[in-house]
Design brief:
This is Transporter. By secondary structure, this protein is mainly alpha-helical. Helix content is 77%, strand content 0%. It has a domain of 193 residues. It is built from 21 helices and no strands. It is globular and about 70 Å long.
């Protein structure tokens, strides 16, 4: 399993350090990402034209990978606008305010609902459903939009996805690679997921409340549109709620959540997940947009449908624009590099990021404590490509090697690598993986990543220490 690192690996690692440093300092990373793509392309092709073309092609690759998320966010925002204009949203969320009456209740309530929903349907479609309904309530009771995004993100893409106890996609991948049963990995992951989840969510909530009290809190809004919508504000000249009768508004306020609940039932009954589940939610949102717009605007309905869709797409691409360059760079750490620049990596390579993980594992002494620390490091490194899942098979393989050397802890080490990889790459630290929650809440994914950084690092440290005692 020994991989010889080449200059490409070291250059990629150097740029990762630069990019992370800029993110921590709240500086824009577009230029450094473009320079990184250019440098990798120059090393791979040894031609100026190949490296320059690689910049554009990597942007295209990243856009293709992200287009599904761009579409669902744009459509949900478009639907939200017509619900706000007609007053349906206010009617729909009014009953929830009695349960989420304080910022703390909103934070934990949104988080727990997001976690339960994500266990069954994975976080991406869950974000659209939970955010569209509960964000307005959270903002009304004083929880910042960024706080709602943190809650959805940590509970959904963190706790639920890293355990994945219902769909079992993650433990299946790691267990197969480690030569273990899925049930053994899931059982071993329970204390790790609990420790990671408790430490990250409690510390994130405490830091949010602390910064709000001392005046250092920043909402990181990228657009006032979603938060304005959540508060029920309307622009001058927009149609008033009177365009629908109070009775019809009440009927639609009941019918629309029922349609999304029907989506949840269909996902469960038909076994839909991931992109299929997201597509069902998106299609339902489009039909709701069309129906409500025709009822509200009548003769102008056909034109208004297009207007709302345009508004949604403008918002979606405005949010995603700054993310595409950094996504393009990090995708080069996986299969995108070979697809764009050819097979120039060393023989036996599994991609730049995975090679770095293997190299780390191959240069450490083997005992329980060091094995746990190394597995966390491997998980973090393989998660840097932003998918969360691409490197967990590698984590399982390395865990099996470590466990053989120390004669114990195979399931615990495998689960630790899985938890670390998914928390980092599955959607809590890598900016473009954070986009679903960030876009629904109208906040910057970079600010959300910065806010998540300390809680996730604290969680990883606590989880690694826990694993040391369990190995």
């Amino acid at each position: 399993m020994e991989i010889q690192l080449a200059a490409i690996h070291w250059v990629y690692l150097v740029f990762i350090v630069f990019i992370m440093a800029l993110l921590v300092r709240r500086r824009d990373t577009t230029m450094i990402c473009v320079v990184g793509i250019f440098s990798l392309g120059l090393l791979a092709t040894a031609t100026l034209s190949g490296s320059v073309s690689g910049i554009f092609n990597s942007f295209i690759y990243a856009t293709k990978e992200l287009i599904g998320t761009i579409m669902i966010i744009s459509i949900i925002v478009a639907m939200s606008r017509i619900l706000i204009v007609t007053g349906i949203n206010e009617t729909m969320v009014a009953p929830l305010t009695r349960f989420l009456r304080t910022p703390a209740m909103a934070f934990w309530g949104i988080g727990l609902i997001m976690m339960v929903t994500s266990f069954f349907f994975w976080p991406s479609p869950a974000v659209a459903l939970v955010g569209a309904v509960l964000l307005p309530v959270a903002v009304r009771v004083g929880l910042p939009a960024l706080g709602a995004a943190i809650a959805m993100n940590l509970f959904g893409h963190g706790i639920a996805l890293s355990g994945d106890y219902i769909i079992q996609g993650a433990p299946k991948l790691t267990a197969d690679a480690a030569g273990l049963s899925v049930s053994s990995v899931m059982e071993a992951s329970i204390p790790l997921v609990i420790v990671m989840g408790v430490v990250t969510t409690v510390s994130a909530f405490w830091m949010m409340r602390r910064d709000q009290k001392n005046g250092s809190w920043r909402d990181g809004l990228v657009s006032a549109q979603v938060v304005s919508a959540a508060l029920g504000d309307r622009k001058p000249g927009e149609d008033a709620p009177a365009t629908l009768s109070p009775r019809l508004r009440e009927v639609l306020a009941i019918l629309i959540p029922l349609l999304f609940l029907a989506d949840l039932a269909a996902m469960f009954a038909l076994g839909l997940q991931g992109g299929d589940a997201t597509a069902l939610v998106g299609g339902t949102a489009v039909l709701i947009l069309i129906a409500v717009t025709l009822l509200a605007h009548r003769n102008q309905g056909l034109e208004k449908i297009t207007a709302y869709l345009i508004e949604g797409f403008v918002f979606g691409f405005k949010v995603f624009g700054p993310v595409i360059p950094i996504a393009a760079f990090f995708y080069l750490g996986d299969s995108a590099f070979t697809e764009l620049f050819g097979n120039v990596l060393p023989e036996g390579s599994h991609g730049i990021v995975n090679d770095l993980g293997v190299a780390l594992a191959g240069h450490v002494p083997l005992n329980g404590a060091v094995g746990a620390i190394t597995m966390t490091g491997v998980g973090v490194i393989t998660g840097l490509d932003g998918s969360g899942f691409s490197g967990i098979s590698l984590a399982g393989s390395i865990a099996q090697l470590f466990a053989t050397a120390i004669h114990s802890g195979a399931a615990t080490l495998t689960a630790l690598g899985q938890v670390a990889a998914i928390w980092v790459g599955g959607g809590t630290l890598i900016p473009w993986a954070l986009i679903p929650a960030a876009a629904i809440c109208g906040v910057s994914p970079f600010e959300l990543a910065r806010r998540n950084l300390k809680p996730v690092l604290l969680g990883l440290a606590a989880t690694t220490v826990t694993a040391m005692f369990l190995v």
